[in-house]
Amino acid sequence: MYKLKIKAKKSWSIGERRLAKKAIEFALDELDLRVTPVPIDIRLKGKSETDFGDSIDLEYKIVVRLHKNDNWLSTLFHELEHARQYIYCELELEHNHVVWRGILASRNEEDWEEYWNSPWEVAARQKEVELLAAFQKNLLTSSS
Predict the structure, then answer these.
(1) pLDDT tens across 75-106, in order?
(2) What value does the mean pLDDT of the chain take?
(3) Do the Cβ atoms of 39 and 61 come closer than 8 Å?
(4) Which parts of the chain have pLDDT scores under 70?
(5) For position 143, what pLDDT does the model report?
(6) CA 107 – CA 72 distance, rounded (Å)
(7) Separation between Cα atoms, residue 40 and residue 96, nearest integer Å
(8) Are the C-beta atoms of residues 68 and 8 closer than 8 Å to each other?
(9) Whose CB has fewer CB within 10 Å in the chain, the N or C terminal residue?
C-alpha cells in the first residue's frame, strides 16, 4: 500500500504526476512491494539544488521524499529500492551505525566516500538503472 502526496503542486505538472504514479505502480510490482505490512508514503517535493531525495524508515511507515530535478524518475526507483531494503529487513540505518543484511557496522554520516561505496547504496544504484530501463521499455511497448 502506498500513498502519494504532492507537496509542491506548482513544480510537478499533471503529466509528471501521472508518470510518477505509473512509475510507482511499476516499481511496486517489480520490487514485490504491492502487498506490504508497512505503508509507503511518497512525497513529491519542490526543486532542490543539493538534495535529490531520500527514503526514511519510521518503523510504522516508510517515507520517500522526492525532489523535483532532471533525474527524478531514477531517484524514485533508487529510493523505492531503499524502501524495499527496509521492508525486507536488509537495511537498518541509524545515525552512527548500520545493519546491512544482518551485519552490524559503524557509520559516519559525514563521510561522502563511505556513503557512496556502501553496499546498500551500490545495490540501490544498480536497481535504479535496471528499473529505469525496464520501465522505459514497458512504456514503449504499452504505447504501441
Answers:
(1) 999 999 999 999 999 999 998 999 999 999 99
(2) 93
(3) yes
(4) 143-144
(5) 64
(6) 27
(7) 25
(8) yes
(9) C
Query: By C-alpha distance, which of 33, 37, 82, 75 is closest to 55?
Result: 82
Question: CA-to-CA distance for 55 and 31, rounded, in angstroms?
Answer: 15
Pair type for strands 97-100 and 91-93? antiparallel
HEC letters along the chain = CEEEEECCCCCCCHHHHHHHHHHHHHHHHHCCCCCCCCCEEEEEEEECCCCCEEEEECCCCEEEEEEECCCHHHHHHHHHHHHHHHHCCCEEECCCEEEECCEEEECCCCCHHHHHHCHHHHHHHHHHHHHHHHHHHHHHHHHC
Q: Sign (positive/negative) of CA torsion 108, 44, 82, 48? A: negative
Q: Which triple of cell numbers denotes residue 131? A: 528499473
Identity of the amino acid at 42:
I
For residue 47, the one-letter residue type is K
Q: How far apart are CA 60 and CA 71, in angstroms?
A: 29
